[in-house]
Amino acid sequence: MLERSKNETPIKAGCYVCDHKFPDIIHCREHIIEEHRSGFDVSGESDFQYRSDLTFGDLEWVDENIWVLLREPELGAKWHRLHLSYHRVFPFSRRVIGVEGATIHTVYVAQCSPVDGDWRHVYIGHANNCLDSAYAQHARTASDSNSSIIPLESYLANNLFTEDPAEGLRWDLQFMLHDHEGGWTFPNAKVSLEVEKWLRAQLEAIGYLVGSDRPEQIAIA
Ligand SMILES: [Zn+2]
């Protein structure tokens, strides 16, 4: 029972600001970021700039305004506030405290060049080392003499928006999935692959074009 609840996916998510309901958390986050801009201090010249300017405080505010409908053994289902329920809701529930010096397992989202002016073109990867180095390795183009570190040119390199990870990482989309402080991690590569697959499906469902270097035929059990 405990193990099952650790993997729970909400029945639906709801926006506390306007009471709209959504099939999942990422969809609801996207709605709040797009539709409740008055909650933030930023305007942004482009969609990308607007997203980049959001602070961790802004993103915390987003999650504080998300409600999740969770299954309850006796009641059937009950609404809970997401930020008080991370421990119950997949994939946040799979995070564990990292051990200093041990390998980390993380999932990240990077901006790719806009397609026809649409910024919803991103790369999802997972890493077991420092995110900046993972980004730098994947962003390296074939013309770089050190490109042999990654034998196949990555999707990110082919669609590179910026070489600077500080600018290219999409914190609005990886919020609470990657910990920049390194305090927590996913327990192993299998879980980070599950999270990567989950996030990809979530983003594709709301119109993102998601690239990855993962062959489609790898099935996650
Ligand atoms: Zn709303």
Report a brief summary of the structure.
This protein has helices at 2-6, 25-35, 47-53, 56-64, 131-139, 155-158, 165-168, 171-174, 189-205, and strands at 12-15, 21-22, 66-72, 76-81, 96-97, 106-111, 121-127, 184-185, 209-211. The chain has two domains: 2-90, no CATH class; 93-211, no CATH class. The relative contact order is 0.16.
Description:
By secondary structure, this protein is α+β, with helices and mostly antiparallel strands. The protein folds into 2 domains: 89 residues, no CATH class; 119 residues, no CATH class. The protein is built from 9 helices and 9 strands. The strands form 3 sheets. A 4-stranded antiparallel β-sheet has the order 2-1-3-4. Strands 6-7-9 form a 3-stranded mixed β-sheet. The chain has a two-stranded antiparallel ribbon with strand order 5-8. Strand 1 and strand 2 form a beta hairpin. The radius of gyration is 18 Å and the shape is globular. The N terminus and C terminus are likely disordered.
Mind sketching the topology for me?
Elements: H1 2-6, E1 12-15, E2 21-22, H2 25-35, H3 47-53, H4 56-64, E3 66-72, E4 76-81, E5 96-97, E6 106-111, E7 121-127, H5 131-139, H6 155-158, H7 165-168, H8 171-174, E8 184-185, H9 189-205, E9 209-211
The structure holds zinc ion (ZN).
Class from secondary-structure proportions: alpha+beta
Tell me roughly what share of residues is in helical segments. Answer: 25-40%
The general outline is globular
Strand order of the largest sheet: 2-1-3-4
The total number of structural domains is 2
Give the low-pLDDT segments: 1-5, 217-221
Distance between the termini: 20 Å
Hetero ligands: zinc ion
- Strand portion: 15-25%
Instruction: Provide mean pLDDT, rounded.
Output: 87
